[in-house]
Amino acid sequence: MKCPFCSDHETSVLESRVAEDGQSLRRRRECLKCDKRFTTFERVEGPIIFVIKRDGSRQPFDRQKIVNGVIRSFDKRPFSIDLIRALADEVEKDVCRKEISEITSIAVGKMVLKRLKAIDKVAWLRFSTVYLEVSDIEEYEKLVEKLTN
Fold it and tell me: What's the pTM value of the predicted model, to 2 decimals?
């Protein structure tokens, strides 16, 4: 494992344990050259699933894109990064459970919105406006109505 501080490849594992999600291993490591400590995570890599974008292009599923998008929707709002990672984990598990090789970005967005609405309504509204490509105030008002009903 390469040290993120000095880039040396000689590290030792100080501690290993199952991460909170139960799907990965958390390892505490120490660089033998610079003596700095860092944490790594190991996850089981499942089959590659492609996301079909609105323009028809295909990209490999990347849970980090979900995390980044949800973080943007929480701009200037209180949030827990662990909660957002858990949301991304749930969406990733749902996608993998479907046992398919392709899924539309629309389906992934719906999975995110479903979970986000229960967490923070303002973040849900922000995510929806980007996901649903809201272009005018009337569409935005309809989203607010949907949220309050």
Answer: 0.68
